[in-house]
Structures are given as structure tokens and as C-alpha cells.
Amino acid sequence: MAKNVLLTGGSGFVGKYLTEVLIANGFSVSVLSRSDRKNTPLITYYKWDLKNDFIEEEAILKADFIIHLAGEGIVEKRWTEKRKKAILESRTKPVKLILNVLKNNNKSLDAFVSASAVGIYGAITSKQICTEEQLPANDFLGLTCQKWENTVDEINALRIRTVKIRTGIVLGKNEGYLKKVVPSFKAGFGTILGSGKQYLPWIHIEDLSQIYLKAVTDIEMFGAYNAAITDNTTNASLSRILANLYGYKIWLPKIPAFLIRFALGEMSDAILEGQRVSSEKIQKTGFEFQFNDIEIALSHSLS
Prior knowledge:
The protein is 40% helix and 17% strand. The chain is an alpha/beta fold and 303 residues long. Helix 7 crosses helix 11 (294-302).
């Protein structure tokens, strides 16, 4: 009988792609959904409602693995205090609900794999290449990721193998980061944000999905892993490549940082700052990236 993987956030960009990868590798897939959805021959849907602390327990009891991808978008809306709370709780509350079901039913799992983000290292631009051993930054992104991961560690306290995937910006066709920036470049109006020197740790959706698959199947994987290419991609270099792929050179001036800060407030930190991260730890597991050249990754994502 096929092992079952339960996804939170299964209807999102990563979740949809990962579902296909899991099914192709012989797993059965269940998805927690806020709306009523009809089951398919390959996917079973279960209801949950975070606002009312409700989750269909059968989804947890049936699962051999759980992959936690759910979370409000970081740069979807201005960071008011209400929005900050929603961003944090959308990541931590699902874990607490799942934890309660596991405890109350004395249920174990083969593994619990959770998304995290390279934002744990902070909205900072420096020459440093961040490894998983680095302490979380003391800003909103750093503290949010720290609390997110701390909640996941409560699952580990049940003697369940836990893996935390610290993800950079995800590149894929018509989704994720590119869905936001491509329209302006496609129209010929793409340009550089702020100084353009902020690093953009990135990963192609195909590689990210394979990392999640490995986290499920490799019983030696445990703890935090950076899921991003270690290179020198910055906002400026990526922007120039995008413009070139659409057949022109950037002609508009850079958008000044002060204008972005005025428009977006504190949220602009996530856009105007960025550090490089090390992928050495995930590569030491034997994982090999299919896409480690930014131009090839972008070209593939736009084709």
C-alpha cells in the first residue's frame, strides 16, 4: 500500500507542483483545504479551519508523512501589526493543530517536513554566505522564521523526524516570484529596485520539489537545510537577464529605495535587502541541483 503524504498549503504554487512529484513517485497524497473540494482518484481532500481551530483528524491519522507549506504571502500586503500577526499565525497555528491531534491520538509519523525561509538570516545585505548554523536575525523576518521553526521543533519532541527547508525565491513558469515581476519586464518596463545590490537567493521549482521528496525519503535528513543556489545573483543581475530574455536592455532608471520604502513601509525590507546562503549542507546529502545557472533557470521558467 502506498505511503500517504498530507500537505498543508497543497493548493499553492509549491504544493501543486510537489503533489505531482509525489504521485509520480508512488505516494498517495492528501491535502488540507479551507473549502469543499471533490476527491480525485489521486488526491483526497480534508477540511480545516484555522480561525476556528478545526481540522479533520482523519487526515492526520491516515498520514505517514506531513509536509507543511501553508502560510500567508510575505510581500502580498503592507506589514501592519495585524498583517504581521496573520503571517506568523498562518505558519505556526497549523503546526499546533497537527501537534494536538498527534498527542491526543498517540499518533506517530515517519517524518514531518516544514517549509521555512532564508529570511531567518534577516533582511540584510552583506558579503556573508549564511549557513544553517547562523543564529536568526532580530528583525521581523528573522523572528517569524525562528518562531515558525520553534513550533516545528515541538513535533520533533514527539520523537518524529523533522526537516525544515529554508527556501529562497522560487522560480517557475507563471508562478511565485516571476508572476509578480515578469509582466513589467515583458511589457518593456522592467527595471532595478533600490541599489540592485541586494542578493536574491533563488531555487527552481523542480529542484525545490526534489528536495522535499528527498526530505521524505531520506531517513538521514534532519533539521534545517538551505534550499537556494549559492551564487552572486542580485536584483540588478536578475533584472538585466530578464530584460535580455525579452530582447532589450534596461532603459528605465532604478526605482529609488526611498520611494519603495514610502510605498511599502517596513515590508520594503524584504525587497531591498538580501543575503547569500550556503547550499553545502543539502548537497552533502547527495542532492544535485538540476538548475544552478540563473540565466538557464529563468529561460526555462519563461519558455
